[in-house]
Structure formats: C-alpha cells, structure tokens
Design goal:
Layout: H1 6-12, E1 46-49, E2 52-55, H2 71-87, E3 93-96, H3 98-104, E4 112-116, H4 121-134, E5 143-145, E6 157-162, E7 165-171, E8 173-177, E9 184-188, H5 191-196, E10 206-208, E11 213-215, H6 221-227, E12 229-230, H7 236-242, H8 245-257, E13 260-261, H9 263-269, H10 272-281, H11 284-295, H12 300-309, H13 313-316, H14 331-349, H15 356-367, E14 375-377, E15 383-385, H16 386-394, H17 399-422, H18 444-459, H19 463-470, H20 483-504, H21 519-526, H22 533-548, H23 554-574
Parallel strand pairs: 4-7, 12-13
Antiparallel strand pairs: 1-2, 3-4, 3-10, 5-6, 6-7, 8-9, 10-11, 14-15
C-alpha cells in the first residue's frame, strides 16, 4: 500500500471509538483515532491490537538512591573543593540538571554544569586558574558565553577544562519581570529559586558537591523521574514564555525517556502565544539543534508525533511563502507518517546497516518525503526544493545536509523507476537515464547493471539509504490482518532483494570506478590538440561502457573507442 494513497489514509483513521484517542507505536501498527482536540492526530501512550484498546501504564523508572561518581568525576569535584578551601570562598558547588538526572537513572553523563551560589561562573574560573598557578600547574583557557535575553539566553556561562573534561559554570539565579516586559531582571538567587526556574522537574535536581547529597528542591523531581512524568516546576505557560525553547526540550525528554507529558504542559505547549514566542523569540539555530537531537535520538518518531500533536509542526518546520504546488492541509501528518514508516522498516533491517550520519539523514529524508516535488522560487529567480529551505533556513543545519536530503529524494524517484525490472530478467524499457548513444552498443543483459551503476555513482555510499527510503513509496498489495506490520516486512523484503541484486552485480563501490583512459589518451584517439567538453563527454560515455563491461582492460577500452571513431568517420563520409 502506498503511504500517500487514500487507502492508507483510510486505514489510519478507520478505527473510531467514542471520543478516545489511540495510537500503536514502534514496529507495531499505528492507528489514528481522532478526538475533538487533536483533529485526527494521535496522542501517545495508548495501545490497541486488532481493534481492542488497552491503556498501557508506563513502568516506574528505576531510580538510584544515591549518585556513584566515576574516578574522573571524583577528581574534578575534589579539585573544585580545593579551590573553595584555598580561597575560603564559602561557596556551595552544585552540579545541576541533566547530569544529576542521568546519574540517578544509572546512565553515564559527561555534561557537567556547576551552579554557584555567590559568584559568577567567570569569576570562579579565574579562581581556578589562580589556584592552578599557585600549585605550579598549567592554567586553562576560559570561554565565556554572554547572556542574550532577546534569544532567551538569560545567564552568562563560563567554561574551562578541568582534568581534561569541559565543565560549565553559572550562578544560581532569581528573576523578576518589569510590567509589560518578558525580559527578566536577573539577580543571584537561592538554590530553591533556581530550581523552580528550570525547564522540567526532572532537570531541577542538584547534586551538592560540598555535602555529596542530591537536593530535590521542587519536592517532586525524583518522584516524577520514578513515575515517568514530564512536568514544569512552575505553571507551564509561564515556564515556556520565559524560554519557549523549553517546549521542544520537554518534547525531546519525553520522547527520549518514554515519559508522559503532563496534561497542563500539553495545553500550554499548544497555546498560540507560546507557539508565536517559539517562532519569534528563539533563533532558528537553537530550534534546529533541538530537532537534530531528537532525530539523532532513540525515539525520533515519538518526538515528531508530539510536535505534530501539539500543533507545533509549522512553527518548527517553517515553509517558504511561494511553495508550488501549494502544500495541502494535513501535510504535517503525512510527513510524520512517513518518518514512522521509515523508522519501522529501519528497525527490521537493522540500524547497524547505516552509520549514525546516514541514519540521521535517512530520517530527515523520510520526514520531508511528501515534499519532494514541492519547490519555491528565490530572488534570483531559481526553483529550490522546499526540503532544502526547511533544513537550511528553518533548522539552520549544514548546507551539506540539505543537499544530501534533496539528492536522496532524486535518487528515490530513480530507484522507483528501476524497481519493475531490477528483479526481472527482462530488458528495461522504462528508464530515466537514456542509454541511447551512437557510440554505445550495450547489450540488454547489461543495461540493468549500467542503469543501477549510474544511479549509485550519483548517490555514492548513501545508495542503501536511498533504496530503503524508496520502499516507502513502492505500492504494496493490500494486506489483511496486522497490515502495517506486514507492510514493513514487505518493504524490508524489497530492500533486501534489490540490495542483493546490486551487490551481486558487483556495484557496491561503483562510484569509485575511474575511466580506463585518461584525458591525454582520449585526445589522442580524437586527434585533438586541447581539452574541452568533448573530453568530459567521452569520459562519461566510457563509464557507461565500463559498467557494461566490468572486466574490460584499458587496451580493450581503447579498441572500442577507436572502432567507435572509425564508424563515425565512415558515417560522416556517406553523409
């Protein structure tokens, strides 16, 4: 079944039970049962099988009673306490946020943020260097990231290496707002005040280095960690307007840990004011970084579901104004259904099939696959794929990322055109690449190898990525029963079969094939005194000939070229 087909959409919305919403995640079928609030898009956390719905309670998370330090962490913390004692600073050193959360979950974390109760991070780093100098040790460079309230960066952060590990230092904060202003006035705060200004309760925990104890100053951080809840310490709308990026952080952590989003949090995240603040107040670079962490994480589909369910899709993935053809309503849900299907088949094929970078771009490519034929006109004017705009302008990711996703979309279309005859012994009759050439006489049995080889030379080592993505657009025969599961298995089967054919043809590294004759030899046959476009034309023609004759030698290639030239000369004479 084609993901873009009406029958697929019908399947996704075919099960409706009262006003409840259900979805079925991971490698299992996903059913979208709309409710009034979500307008047809699923919420998470409810599973249904064969039409029978059952609430699935998330298991309580195993949370440790204490934090066990690694040898390096112990060395770092002792060094910091030595600085405090040496200068009699009376400073409480607290590790804040994610490090505490991850250590309580028994996970490794190398992101150490130190919160200081009576001095700026930059000032403490200078004290560290003074201490190192007095001890006869090498001083370290200090990096300072200035505050930028307009971009919701309210605190100055200092960074330096301690025991070969980067450590960030920042002061505890309290804040107040002037009337009619969303920019806070910052001042030193207590640890409790700072904890309540954090994005989430599970990130508001402190590890007090001085007392070697965990501090849960909101009174619910540890419990929310155990229960698997994503909650803000203060009212969520207030928290999100303070820094709208926190909406995406809540989504990312909810997806990463498979935690449930608090209902009040979801309502605030869907608020028009919060959505507008996310679009206007937060830099696209910061938004892109959060999305990249989601896509590269362990639950990218769940994160995209949340973004769509909370009506944030177009705030995150902004679109150009003049896109053609016009983007239809529901495109956001179609994009999420494609990344879901892509994720399901990837789990069956095995994530180890791809590198981390290939997996990341595969998911971006799948997410924007419904937009592959949509373009906009820039100021030049030049038509540019909308996927390129989203990656480069909406997310501010690398130009190479955008170019690769667009290349994958092009390769997907070409793979689809190859599918009908890749698994058959017949001569390909429909091909986007024209092999007709008066100098080439490629036998029908070799055309499959030439066409596939030319495609692989375009997409290079990402050919398996493009192949797997192309199975998402391959129509699948109607399947009864657990159809979405079986569709994923069928797409895996298509991928495996075509991959085997390509490798059996010896094309796995086709992009590394070089012309058997260099430019000088070609010039000799053509009796040319200089280079030019004709040399390039013959090199491309030679690659096709070599793909058709993989075991040919340079001498045989020279003979073919000389014979081709001789035939051309005779034809010119008769003409």
């Amino acid at each position: 079944m084609d993901l873009a087909s009406p029958s697929y959409a019908k399947l996704l919305t075919s099960r409706r039970i009262a006003s409840h919403r259900f979805c079925f995640l991971s490698t299992q079928a996903i059913f979208f049962i709309p409710s009034k609030r979500t307008l047809g898009f699923p919420c998470l956390g409810v599973r249904c099988r064969a039409g029978v719905s059952t609430m699935v309670a998330e298991p309580r998370t195993v949370v440790k009673d204490r934090i066990d330090l690694t040898e390096n962490e112990g060395t770092i913390f002792r060094r910091l306490l030595d600085v405090v004692d040496h200068f009699k600073l009376n400073t409480q050193l607290r590790v804040a946020g994610g490090w505490v959360r991850d250590k309580l979950l028994g996970k490794d974390c190398y992101d150490i943020d130190i919160a200081l109760d009576n001095m700026l991070g930059r000032e403490f780093c200078e004290k560290v260097n003074e201490y190192l100098h007095s001890a006869g040790e090498e001083q370290q460079g200090i990096g300072v990231i200035q505050c930028n309230p307009d971009q919701s960066k309210h605190l100055e952060t200092a960074r330096m290496r301690i025991c070969s590990t980067w450590v960030d230092f920042v002061n505890l904060r309290s804040e107040s707002y002037a009337e009619n202003s969303r920019i806070p006035k910052m001042k030193f705060g207590t640890a409790k005040e700072d904890a309540y200004r954090r994005d989430l309760t599970i990130n508001s925990l402190f590890y007090n280095i001085n007392t070697t104890s965990v501090e849960d100053l909101t009174g619910r951080g540890v419990q929310d960690l155990k229960d698997g809840y994503i909650v803000t310490p203060l009212p969520p709308k207030e928290t999100f307007l303070d820094d709208p990026l926190r909406v995406l952080r809540a989504i990312r952590f909810g997806a990463r840990f498979n935690f449930k989003l608090n209902e009040d949090l979801k309502e605030a995240a869907s608020d028009d004011e919060v959505r507008d603040a996310l679009m206007c107040k937060i830099s696209r670079e910061r938004i892109g970084h959060e999305i990249d962490l989601m896509i590269s994480g362990n639950q990218p589909v769940r994160a995209m579901f949340y973004i769509c369910d909370l009506q944030l899709f177009y705030a995150v993935f902004t679109l150009p104004e003049n896109a053609q053809p016009e983007i239809v309503e529901g495109c956001n849900r179609l994009c999420v259904s494609h990344i879901d299907a892509a994720w399901n088949v990837l789990q069956l094929v095995g994530c180890s099939t791809f590198s981390d970078e290939q997996r990341r771009l595969y998911l971006y490519g799948a997410l924007f696959l419904p937009l592959r034929n949509t373009a906009y006109t820039d100021t030049k004017p030049k038509k540019i794929p909308v996927a390129n705009f989203i990656i480069r302008n909406s997310l501010k990711l690398k130009a190479n990322d955008a170019e690769m996703v667009v290349s994958l979309h092009v390769a997907v279309e070409r793979f689809i055109s190859l599918f009908p005859f890749m698994e058959s012994d017949g001569e390909p009759v429909l091909a986007e690449v024209n092999l007709d050439d008066e100098f080439l006489d490629i036998p029908p049995t070799s055309r499959k190898r030439v066409l596939a080889g030319l495609l692989l030379r375009e997409i290079k080592s990402f050919w398996r990525v493009a192949l797997l993505m192309s199975t998402l657009l391959r129509p699948i025969d109607e399947i009864v029963g657990d159809s979405l599961n079986k569709e994923s298995e069928r797409r895996k089967e298509i991928f495996t079969n075509v991959e085997r054919i390509i490798t059996d043809l010896g094309l796995d590294n086709a992009w590394e094939v070089k012309p058997l004759l260099d430019g000088k030899a070609i010039m000799g046959v053509l009796q040319l005194k200089g280079g030019g476009p004709l040399i390039r034309e013959w090199q491309q023609r030679m690659i096709k000939w070599q793909l058709a004759h993989p075991n040919a030698t340079a001498e045989e290639c020279l003979d073919w070229m000389q014979q081709s030239q001789s035939k051309r000369a005779k034809l010119d004479c008769y003409a």
